[in-house]
Design goal:
Elements lengths: L5 E8 L5 H11 L3 E6 L18 E4 L8 H18 L7 E5 L7 H9 L1 H4 L2 E11 L3 H7 L1 H8 L3 E5 L6 H14 L5 E4 L24 H5 L6 E5 L16 E8 L5 H14 L4 E8 L8 E6 L2 E2 L3 E2 L10 E8 L3 H9 L18
Parallel strand pairs: 1-4, 1-5, 2-3, 2-4, 5-6, 6-7, 8-9
Antiparallel strand pairs: 9-14, 10-11, 10-14, 11-12, 11-13
Length: 354
């Protein structure tokens, strides 16, 4: 049996942005990799473009992986794990899931993190998004799927820069940084990239990696929406190239009550589920010596995790939000409620699992 959870990298990016070219380079450097590919349509062709790998290949065809994640992805991972454990296929060291260009990464992330059988055996280590330097601006303007792929990414890989005007590349870099301030933007030419830069990053393995939290959070890279105490005027919202997306941070000086946080998040998820693309936070809870990590991707509030120690001397609660079509006044009102007890509302608040 495998002695520790198998690292999984989610590789996404819009149609034609160079995912398969990159994948070929990655498996040359890391040959003992299981590949799961998703192709939209009844006949899949991309897998025929892959070079030989020592790891198994699974093809999910006939639909978008985000629509068939329960019916296809989960059984595929289970079958790969059991077959390797029995010795029916070669033992693999990692998994790369390549989505179709129009896929929403969120349901895949949800399955990997929240399905208990998978979460005990596989570990999501990062979301990698390829962006076409020639067509990226046009795709972001025309397809919200492309925007979501960018805003949930942990790494952004800019491809085809040699085919694009340098000024256009600079403009695209600026836009990507506005959409996702915390993701490093790496240039990839002809798929060439050191696999160590993006594989096995461990960004979602927060239990024992407190040193990575600030890198994962990146709160100081986002403009502030509000800070506590709420006595002064909120910071003015800065203009963003993509008017649909707002990204901002919020800090709270005093320890927070779990009751208020849970209630505020439930209100946010209930009223604005389509608007909240991502939230991540490190929180100083009343009565806890160690920090608690919160992670929301769209409608999914992942199980809180208590870290073994604070990553630095800063004991503020720090939140990062990435939202779509949600004005700042609504956000600020919800943030004001983070310390409220909601005594008059019919809301059952469970104990913090962390």
């Amino acid at each position: 049996m495998f002695s520790s959870p198998i690292p999984v990298t989610l590789l996404t990016g819009f149609l034609g942005s160079g995912k398969t070219t990159l994948l070929n380079q990655l498996i040359q450097q890391q040959p003992r990799t299981a590949i799961i590919m998703n192709e939209f349509g009844e006949i899949g062709l991309d897998h025929q473009l892959l070079q030989k790998t020592d790891g198994p290949l699974a093809l999910l065809s006939g639909g978008c992986i985000c629509c068939t994640v329960v019916g296809s992805l989960s059984p595929t991972l289970k079958n790969l794990f059991m077959a390797a454990s029995r010795g029916d296929i070669p033992r693999f060291e990692r998994v790369i899931i390549e989505t179709t260009g129009i896929a929403d990464p969120v349901p895949i992330m949800d399955t990997l993190i929240n399905e208990r059988w998978l979460a005990a055996r596989f570990q999501l280590t990062g979301v990698v998004t390829t962006v076409d330097a020639v067509l990226g601006e046009q795709q972001l303007d025309s397809y919200f799927e492309a925007v979501k792929q960018v805003v949930v990414a942990d790494y952004l890989l800019l491809t085809k820069t040699d085919l694009s005007d340098p000024r256009a590349v600079d403009d695209l870099r600026t836009r990507l940084a506005e959409l996702n301030s915390s993701a490093p933007i790496l240039t990839v030419e002809h798929g060439q990239l050191d696999s160590a830069l993006i594989l096995n990053a461990g960004l979602y393995d927060l239990t024992n990696k407190s040193v990575e939290v600030n890198k994962w959070l990146g709160a100081n890279q986002y403009r502030p929406a509000v800070s506590m105490p709420m006595t002064g005027r909120p910071a003015k919202e800065m203009p963003v190239h993509d008017e649909r997306i707002r990204s901002f941070s919020a800090t709270f000086d005093e320890p927070l009550e779990w009751t208020g946080i849970y209630a505020a998040l439930q209100r946010l998820l209930g009223a604005h589920v389509k608007s909240l693309l991502r939230m991540k936070a490190i929180v100083n809870l009343k009565g806890n010596d160690n920090p608690t990590v919160l992670h929301v991707v769209q409608h999914i509030l992942h199980t809180p995790t208590e870290l073994p120690e604070w990553p630095d001397e800063n004991r503020q609660s720090r939140f990062v939000f990435i939202v779509a079509d949600l004005d700042m006044e609504q956000v600020q009102q919800i943030l004001r409620e983070f310390n409220d007890v909601y005594a008059n509302e019919r809301l059952t608040v469970p104990a913090c699992p962390a």
